[in-house]
Design brief:
Largest sheet: 7 strands, mixed
Distance between the termini: 46 Å
Structural class: alpha/beta
Number of helices: 24
Shape: globular
Oligomer: single chain
Strand order of the largest sheet: 1-2-3-7-9-12-13
Number of strands: 18
Radius of gyration: 25 Å
């Protein structure tokens, strides 16, 4: 069998576009790869791409990049080699069920490959000046190679010759000035996981007794989350995770798209944000482990001030649809690093492509093996040195991390200038000349944590979702009392925020809110059997399955209504604008008071 595989690989190398047409070459390449790796069929929904090869993206400028028709022509994600690293380009904000399965397998296969050093998962930042429109990107090049193409291009009075058109002149300007996040008409939509309405229209939710929805969508979502975390089940073909998965979500992430924040390193930019929209669809958590992660905000990186308010942070994110920005995500440990400019992805790619592979990261020699002891399992003497260089590169491109360290690994909390409230770096800490200090950042503030602390009494008292809403209404009613009075501006701001939060909760499905709250309660319990990450994800899958297949349920009503969730994808672009009026309100229950405990338990436990 080994000889056959070697022969197949040799044949594959000799086949070139000169001998065969690109479509035929693509099919032959997939068949050969399938014979060698025995990969599942879904893996080929996420193709490998090199410049101008058979997997080059089709040019289809007249169709919406997020439409079901166009998704069939353009893959939702593409894998590309970048030296000893691998880059996964997330081209669409939603993936089909088959693509989710395929991406899950791809991530597992890559992260267990000791011939590389890392896996980078990121949405394209290369087409910045076309609002995320990928229709002109035919090559899926690394970001630093795209930048090189832009600078080498020639202009005339009519614009830019060659691929891309006149948009690349402005691209160069924004690349130099690092203005991408501020120049978009809409916000880049990184990922929401899957298209919920498209899933409903496919008929997968019609038969509650069928396993199709679970096996083809929800279980693959769970497995994709496991793959990103590096905690998947090992098989004969897939060993344990060896190299880190580095995610760089530049833009808006929602619901199941949280997998983009689940990597070994989750690098946020100035435009990264996360928001839970599913309760506006009559749904709860996707099976990505949020009911486990949210109640534990701040614990992994020992963020004491955050962990004191982790329950409030969890409720704000899950029940109100609070949109957490980059500072919120890093401050709570939901992301690991803040890099600021998305163009630091260039530096990251350039650096990682030249680092030795996992197997090549050796400092000590392997111990000798003696006759009769060949099969003895010995510890990896280089284990402590592997992945260290990758971690150092990630730290270097970051401005700070969740543990409070800057790009040099210096902990910012130790360098806070109390007078100026600025973090400082000093060449010699024994000398404290103010004029020699390089001032980096102001105090890192998380609005999410601040609001969780402000409304601590609202969240810690018993009474469930109904009690939370009532206490928020009480605080909101104080607005009339303080409005217009000097010295009470902060009280008015708190009342207005409470009013906004309760209005957001009133828009959401009462049943979905109650189910989400119960999942958080169960996930917060410190019990290894019932509150492990996997047990929480399994509960989320079970609850989501029941909500999606419920006859005449809230999800079905929403899907049939044609309404959205207050966000609209821009035509032909992978970005979005906000239309808050486009929200469904015909829920089965008039308010959370009408939801019974039996209904909640039936959805979670059945």
């Amino acid at each position: 069998m080994t000889a056959s595989r070697a022969a197949i690989r040799t044949l594959n190398k000799r086949l070139t576009p000169r001998h065969l047409s690109p479509p035929l070459l693509s099919r032959i390449h997939d068949e050969i790869d399938r014979l060698v790796t025995e990969a599942p069929e879904s893996a080929y929904a996420i193709p490998d791409s090199v410049r101008y090869d058979a997997h080059a993206l089709p040019n289809d400028t007249n169709k919406n990049s997020n439409s079901p028709t166009n998704n069939q022509q353009r893959p939702g994600a593409v894998v590309r080699s970048i030296g000893t690293s691998r880059r996964v380009f997330m081209l669409n904000s939603t993936l089909t069920p088959t693509e989710i399965q395929g991406l899950s397998y791809r991530i597992k296969a890559l992260s267990s490959n000791d011939g590389i050093n890392s896996v980078i998962v990121a949405n394209p930042i290369e087409d910045a000046d076309v609002d995320g429109d990928m229709s002109e990107n035919l090559t899926v090049l690394p970001s630093f190679m795209e930048e090189g193409l832009m600078k080498e291009s020639k202009y005339d009075d009519k614009g830019l010759y060659g691929r891309g058109g006149t948009m690349h002149k402005e691209y160069v300007k924004s690349a130099v000035n690092e203005r991408y996040g501020n120049r978009l008409f809409g916000m880049p939509y990184v990922s929401s996981g899957y298209d919920a309405r498209q899933v409903y229209e496919s008929g997968m939710c019609d038969n509650p007794s069928s396993s199709e929805l679970e096996t083809q969508l929800l279980q693959p979502v769970l497995e994709l989350a496991e793959a990103m975390r590096g905690e998947y089940i090992q098989t004969e073909r897939l060993s344990h995770s060896k190299v880190p998965v580095i995610t760089v979500p530049h833009g808006f992430v929602s619901d199941g798209g949280y997998v983009m924040l689940s990597g070994s390193y989750a690098l946020t930019t100035d435009a990264t944000s996360y928001r839970m929209l599913h309760p506006l669809r009559g749904l709860s958590f996707d099976p990505v482990g949020l009911s486990y992660a949210l109640p534990r905000c701040g614990r992994e990186f020992h963020q004491k001030s955050v962990s004191q308010h982790s329950w409030g942070c969890a409720l704000l994110l899950a029940l109100t649809g609070y949109e957490a920005d980059a500072s919120d995500l890093v401050s709570t440990g939901l992301a690991t690093h803040y890099i600021g400019s998305p163009y630091k992805l260039n530096t990251l790619e350039r650096s990682l492509m030249n680092i030795n592979s996992y197997e090549g990261q050796r400092v000590k020699r392997d111990p000798r093996k003696y006759y009769g002891h060949e099969h003895e399992v010995t510890a990896d003497v280089n284990y402590e040195y592997r992945n260290v260089a990758v971690g150092n590169v990630v730290q270097f491109v970051s401005e700070y991390d969740a543990a409070g360290a800057d790009e040099y690994g210096c902990y910012l909390k130790n360098d806070l200038d109390e007078d100026k409230q600025l973090y400082i770096r000093e060449n010699d800490p024994t000398l404290r000349f103010d004029e020699d200090r390089i001032q980096l950042y102001g105090e890192i503030v998380s609005p999410l944590v601040n609001w969780a602390a402000t409304f601590e009494s609202v969240f810690v008292e018993d009474g469930g979702v109904e009690g939370i809403m009532e206490r928020l209404r009480e605080i909101a009613s104080e607005k009339v009392r303080y409005q217009g009075k000097i010295g009470y501006e902060e009280d008015v701001a708190v009342a207005e925020q409470a009013e906004y939060l309760v209005s957001c909760m009133e828009q959401r499905s009462p049943l979905a809110l109650e189910v989400t709250y119960r999942l958080l309660q169960l996930g917060a319990v410190e019990d290894e059997e019932t509150s492990s990450w996997r047990s929480c994800a399994d509960r989320e899958k079970r609850a989501q399955l029941n909500l999606m297949t419920m006859k005449d349920g809230d999800f079905a009503k929403w899907a049939q209504s044609g309404k959205g969730v207050g966000l609209t994808s821009m035509q032909g672009k992978a970005s979005l604008i906000r239309e808050t009026e486009d929200v469904f309100d015909g829920w089965k229950h008039g308010s959370v008071k009408d939801v019974t405990k039996d209904e909640i338990e039936e959805i979670i436990e059945s």
